[in-house]
Design brief:
single chain; mainly alpha; about 55% helix
Length: about 70
């Protein structure tokens, strides 16, 4: 539970920062919080349930549901 609560807070802070002014809103730098996504992926891989859904956490990246869908 503590991880999900911290995740919600991290995503809220990320959104607040990247929407604080027009200049930040116009850039795509804040579209995905890579640091938060990386930690969430590690938690998911470790078996922690991730109960948070957000536009900032692409489901297919988190759950690796596209793995093997495209030839590499």
């Amino acid at each position: 539970m503590a991880f999900n609560e911290a995740l919600v807070q991290a995503l809220q802070l990320h959104k607040e920062y990247w929407t604080a002014n027009e200049e930040r809103q116009e850039t795509s730098d804040g579209d995905i919080p890579l640091d938060v996504l990386a930690l969430t992926c590690l938690a998911h891989d470790a078996g922690r349930p991730i109960d948070v859904e957000s536009e900032y956490l692409p489901e297919h990246l988190l759950k690796r549901s596209w793995l093997g869908e495209f030839p590499t």
